[in-house]
Amino acid sequence: MSISTFVIVSVIKIVIALAVLLTSVAYSVWLERKVLGHIQNRWGPSYVGPFGLLQPLADGLKFIFKEDLTPPHVHKALYIAAPMLSVICAVSSIAVIPIGNWVDVAGLHIPLEITDVNIGLLVILGITSMGVYGVALAGWSSNNKYSLLGGLRASAQMVSYEISLGLSLIGVLIVSGSFSLRQIVDAQGGRFWGFVPRWNVFHGQEVAFFIYLMSAYAETNRVPFDLPEAETELVAGYHTEYSAMKFAMFFMAEYANMITVGCLATLLFLGGWHGPIVGPPLARVILPVFWFGLKVFGFMILYIWVRGTLPRFRYDQLMAFGWKFLFPLAVANLVVTALVVAVRA
Amino acid sequence: MPDNYFAPYLPLLMHFLAACLLAAAIVALSAILGYRKPTRAKLSPYECGMTPLGDARERFSVKFYLVAMMFILFDVEAVFLYPWAVILRDLKMFGFWEMLVYIGIVLVGFVYIWKKGVLDWGPSRARGRG
After folding, report:
1. Taking burial as the number of CB atoms within 10 A of a residue's CB, which of A56, A169, B79, B118 is the most buried?
2. How far apart are CA B116 and CA A80, in angstroms?
3. Helix %, strand %, coil % for chain A, to 5?
4. What is the CATH number of the domain that holds B124?
5. Is B40 within 8 Å of chain A by CB?
6. Quick one: pLDDT at residue A195?
7. How many angstroms separate the CA atoms of A330 and A341, rounded?
């Protein structure tokens, strides 16, 4: 493949990936409102289009035409940079997420991901941990007491749970012996005793999956860890002073992060694109993508279900849970996994 | 793919630039199309209808700094463990014991900050003692 073909193929993949991601973000919001509505015995969005399906479009238009207020008391440069930083970090991390096998189009052998780097996991961790800056800067630059408290809480929470998140992934790294997300998924192919899929979550990483799930909820500031934006005490937390599209950008970043976290959980613990049926040659390209999408979708439903079910933690409970429970548990899981693998090797 | 070690990172850079462009476009779009009608009340810091007393450049709990410091310490630990985890199969039991010593030292520090009350946020005994 020559350099120009390589660049053209990459551009096409980037355009498709961004379009799919932004559409998924818009429709995750719709899905959440709809499912939450039904959980609370309401209809959710139902006026704009059939089943309210055009609601995201209407919301987007409304956000664009709303007044974009920059109050005089803010630190202007950082105030504008913060939502941009959030969106950039949230959107960039999908670049290294593989969604399926290789495809052969017009004599080109192309992986179903924007780029196949051998340290994919590190790239994702690096980019997503930059997301803390968006939240912290938004809270500080707004020069509003609610925003400051929300931003401080959010940063403290995100950095605290990042440690457990990082440690929970080490178990997977030990089992698969690679940083490449594609190799980690490939190592999960096949079955135990002919019927249990060889996914990492059934491969001694149950505890790690639990820790990852909890930390991921806290990292994305979702219920039951949504203290940074606890409406009843902090108004909207770090984005109190934001309006119009800048507010929507924090929203987009949150949902894009949820999707990234779901993709990562699928790749690392739930066997990626491996599914129960392989199918005929033509379906071997499409079915894996379908299984992958289905698993991520299930993860999103779980997110929404939890939001409709659980109350919020108290801040001291949140920090105690992260530091005094998840962190020691993650270290214990790591040591046990390492021992088992080292003894068998 | 061109035969260069950095070739896989080119699409990553392109995607990053595309993301920057997207973010800039959204901000610009909203700034151009949104209407503007600022009033004094609208421009004041939002505090649920109360007249704001001073700005938000005040002191806040030192605990947040401690959390940031602990994050750096323990996250560096996690980063040290990553390369070790990938090659543990080759290091076998030697690698396991070596890393156990390291984790042990880090855990001593963890127990110390726990006993110091750094991890207690509520109105607890540690805070009552000052």
Report:
1. A169
2. 40
3. 70, 5, 25
4. 1.20.58.1610
5. no
6. 77
7. 16
Q: What's the rounded mean pLDDT across residues A86-112?
A: 85
* pLDDT of A104: 78
The answer to whether the Cβ–Cβ distance between B119 and A320 falls below 8 Å is yes
Does residue B123 fall inside a structural domain? yes
pLDDT-wise least confident of A24-33, A219-228, A244-253, A318-327: A219-228
Distance CA A167, CA A184 (A): 17
Average pLDDT over residues A134-139: 88
| Token pair of A243 as six digits | 């309006």
Residue A312 DSSP class: P
Which member of A63, A68, A316 has the closest CB to residue B121? A316
B100 neighbors A335 (Cβ within 8 angstroms): yes
Q: What is the pLDDT of residue A24?
A: 92
- Closest-CA residue to A273 (of A166, A174, A184): A184
pTM summary value = 0.90
Task: Report pLDDT for B125.
Answer: 56
Domain region containing B25? 9-128
What's the number of domains chain B is made of? 1
CB atoms within 10 A of CB A277: 8
Q: Are A197 and A271 in contact (CB under 8 A)?
A: yes
With b for 16 or more beta-carbon neighbours within 10 A and e for fewer, the A46-73 pattern comes to eeeeeebeebbeebbeebbebebbbbeb
Give the A window 312-331 contacts with B, CB below 8 Å. Answer: 314-316, 319-320, 323-324, 327-328, 331
pLDDT at position B130 is 44
Cα distance between residue A333 and residue B108, in whole Å:
18
Whether residue B95 lies inside any domain: the answer is yes
Q: Is A103 helix (H, G, I), strand (E, B) or coil?
A: strand
Structure tokens at A274: 């491996």
Query: In terms of C-beta density within 10 A (0-12 exposed, 13-18 middle, 19 or more buried), how is residue A202 classed?
Result: middle
Residues of B in contact with A114 (CB under 8 A): 11-12, 15
CA atoms within 13 A on the CB side of A103: 17
| Mean pLDDT, all residues of chain B | 83
Q: Which amino acid is at B126?
A: A
Interface check for B75 against chain A (CB to CB < 8 A): the answer is yes
Lowest mean pLDDT among A36-40, A174-178, A256-260, A333-337: A174-178
What's the confidence (pLDDT) of residue A329?
Answer: 94
Has residue B104 been placed in a domain? yes
- Residue B1 domain-assigned? no
